[in-house]
Amino acid sequence: MPKPMVKPGAVIDGYTIGECVHAGGMATLWTVTHAGIDARLLMKIPRASEGEDPAAIVSFEMEMMILPRLTGPHVPHCYGTGDFAHQAYAVIERISGTTLYKRLPDLPLPYGEVRLLVAKIATALADLHRQNVIHHDIKPSSIMFRDNGEAVLIDFGLSHHNHLPDLMQAEFRLPYGTAPYMAPERLLGVRDDPRSDLFSLGVLLYFFTTGERPFGEGETLRAMRRRLWRDPYPPRALRSDYPPWLQEVVLRCLEIEPDWRYPTAAQLAFDLTHPDQVKLTARAERMKRDPLSVAWRRRFNPDVKPSGARSDLATQIAMSPIVTVALDTAEGAPELNESLRVTTERILATLPSARLACVNVLKLNRIAVDKTLDEQGSNKHIDRLVALRHWATPLKLDESRLSVHVLEAVDPAAALLEFAEVNQVDHVIIGARQGSFRRTLLGSVSAKVAAEATCTVTVVRPPRMAADAGEADADEAAG
Amino acid sequence: MLLAVFSDIHGNRQAFEACLKVARAKGAERFVMLGDFVGYGADPEWVVDTAMELVAQGAVAVRGNHDQAVNSSSETMNNEAQIAIEWTRGRLDIAQRRFLAELPMLVEDGDRLFVHSEASHPQRWHYIRSTADAAKSLISTPAHVTFCGHIHRPALYSMSVTAKMTGLVPKTDISMPLLRGRQWLAVLGAVGQPRDGDPSAAFVLFDTTSCQITYCRAPYDVASAANRIRENGLPHWLADRLSEGR
């Protein structure tokens, strides 16, 4: 079939070709313009002629299926695709700036900077996973940043979409991807576990903070397979000032068994956003790799090999929500706090991978100068943290699943809504306003939170209130 | 154009009515029926009459093994299917039986192919159980998309130009693009006797312009359909299995 020439000035389906801005192994990228589209556009054209790598065609087919389905700020917007019957292409939004690859000469970067970078990437990944896509090629050259700082993931040629045929799975017996970043289970043919992306992001986090790749650059299958049984050197062995909390996060991402990693990208982003809340385990203290006896047991005992995903992507994410309970420990009625605990317990009982963030708002006065110390001279902020932990103790949650936060704000409802938004909270549990405790700090904000939150909100009342709920509560119950 | 494709209606009036209603509400402009209009269910007359009307209005219909068995005793079937077919034969008039007898084995419609079982040997009524079965069917036709039923369990297969296969159990109500660069085999679940664990009636919508396929389910009054089977003295298992989708 005759194919139009791709060259500057040529027109394909109304898109006028500009200059070639990138020529990679799998595809070329051209600037294009289109009457009626007021945006900077790129046309991606696969290398699909005879003699080219067949993977280029199949991975482009995957991109053509996936790109038009993606939405939101963390992916390039797709304007159109053309298939192989005529001229295969995908027209996408051109993101300004460069990929993270350009930062490689500057490594290692300061810990604080990497923490923020990777938290943004984890947020973008969480958004992608929620859209049923596993990226499978997370590495510096697949990541860009918008001017507002939000991370954008690009290149979906190796991706897996939970609702679509996995063309890559069928096509190639060897795993396709970028060797240093590839999760161990990928080497066993597992392509439906979103935690593979968390492993790759862990490699990036390790690399950007130490300047070393945790599993080297080995491209051979034998070199790659070592990660199925050999753990990397702990970052603290490479840099003595490496923060223990950061090592905890890195090594959790790099666990060989996916079950031992973070259950979701949103939970990883949460830890990176709240380093003081990271529960330190033996991982944080490690100064050496596992003894050879342990590594060999992994190597020669097939039972400890990664087992891969046991349920589909949406189910895995749904099983691992971030739940926030808003508590008024200072002035809240004890019976309301007890009801909140019963409700929280019920919600968590069915969700073994959920994590719970207990939040209290320390209300600031709009005009008066606030003092951190109360009348007795003790620190209000710390008192509240202690009270939150005390409230959560009967839940008997593993420390790694629990965090406590005191927000300081003039408007408690706005503070809670912002906390939920920034931390990708899936479910807020909050006490209702109580007739006899009208001034209760959080109680008065439940209606606003229920009305304006973008996630599920459960409004809790103590048992006796259900019987004698006043008018003010009746309309609130609708939220 | 939006096609609605139905397969294995099997005399289940309640299920077929529900599917037609949903398909029309979703904007289906043309209907395709992939055979097995009768057998198992207790309303073969209504189903065949409805199919005849739809065909008169431009719908496509092909023959299934149960449709063939109504007019020929040489088709081998399991005991319950045989009882149901003999019962059905007594219910249909000459015009209805002739309609079933004259159905084509397969219909080519542009770059689409419609067939009951599979495309390589339609008269042998082979089931598509695996990517290997799907490959045999796909190799035998140049069609971009082949639609078939017969197995009562939905699946979607593709074959690349280098004959690499993919297989997938489609999720309900998710539209998928059937890329031009490869061939596709869309296996439909059953309207009248689903066997994939979901008792609701299965059908497919296909947009011929965008090449997007959507596997749909229509819940229907299973109890009524099952009661009709029992009232008419057909084997009880044929009624029981409807509520289980097995």
From TrEMBL, chain A:
InterPro entries: Kinase-like_dom_sf, Prot_kinase_dom, Rossmann-like_a/b/a_fold, Universal_stress_UspA, UspA. One of its GO terms (molecular function) is protein serine/threonine kinase activity. Gene3D superfamilies: HUPs, Phosphorylase Kinase, domain 1, Transferase(Phosphotransferase) domain 1. Belongs to the universal stress protein A family. The keyword ATP-binding applies. This is Protein kinase. Keywords: ATP-binding, Kinase, Nucleotide-binding, Transferase. The keyword Ligase does not apply. It holds the Pfam family Pkinase. PANTHER family: MITOGEN-ACTIVATED PROTEIN KINASE KINASE KINASE 20-RELATED, SERINE_THREONINE-PROTEIN KINASE YBDM-RELATED. Residues 15-277 form the Protein kinase domain. It comes from the Bacteria.
UniProtKB/TrEMBL annotation, chain B:
GO terms for cellular component: cytoplasm. GO terms for molecular function: phosphatase activity. Pfam families: Metallophos_2 (PF12850). This is Metallophosphoesterase family protein. It comes from the Bacteria. Belongs to the metallophosphoesterase superfamily. YfcE family. The lineage of its organism: Bacteria, Pseudomonadati, Pseudomonadota, Alphaproteobacteria, Hyphomicrobiales. Residues 1-208 form the Calcineurin-like phosphoesterase domain. InterPro entries: Ap4A_hydrolase (IPR050126), Calcineurin-like_PHP_lpxH (IPR024654), Metallo-depent_PP-like (IPR029052), Pesterase_MJ0912 (IPR011152). CDD domains: MPP_superfamily.
